[in-house]
Amino acid sequence: MSNHQRLDDGMRWRIVGRLEAGQSQVQICREFNLTPSFVSNLWKQFQDTGSIERKPGEGRPRATAATEDRYLSITARCNRGATASQLSRDLYEEPVYQG
């Protein structure tokens, strides 16, 4: 699966239906252009929970708050030559709100 695209629920249910019908995971990977780990994880999730929906809160926790994101965005636009390390250093050296 290229670019980590999210499949809609209809497509996920179609994949699960084909797995239940006996189609191999390798065939499904080739047909839908998916990685084997994606199909395997989807199948395990369906077998464990009976559902294909993602649980809320899955994924990597955010490292910055919304205000910090805005500050970084503005600072990066003003100082286009700055590296990520410099922006990070500036973020934690200076207060976000100076008023």
TrEMBL record:
<feature type="domain" description="Insertion element IS150 protein InsJ-like helix-turn-helix">
    <location>
        <begin position="12"/>
        <end position="61"/>
    </location>
</feature>
<dbReference type="GO" id="GO:0005634">
    <property type="term" value="C:nucleus"/>
</dbReference>
<protein>
    <recommendedName>
        <fullName>Insertion element IS150 protein InsJ-like helix-turn-helix domain-containing protein</fullName>
    </recommendedName>
</protein>
<dbReference type="InterPro" id="IPR009057">
    <property type="entry name" value="Homeodomain-like_sf"/>
</dbReference>
<dbReference type="Pfam" id="PF13518">
    <property type="entry name" value="HTH_28"/>
</dbReference>
<dbReference type="InterPro" id="IPR055247">
    <property type="entry name" value="InsJ-like_HTH"/>
</dbReference>
<dbReference type="InterPro" id="IPR036388">
    <property type="entry name" value="WH-like_DNA-bd_sf"/>
</dbReference>
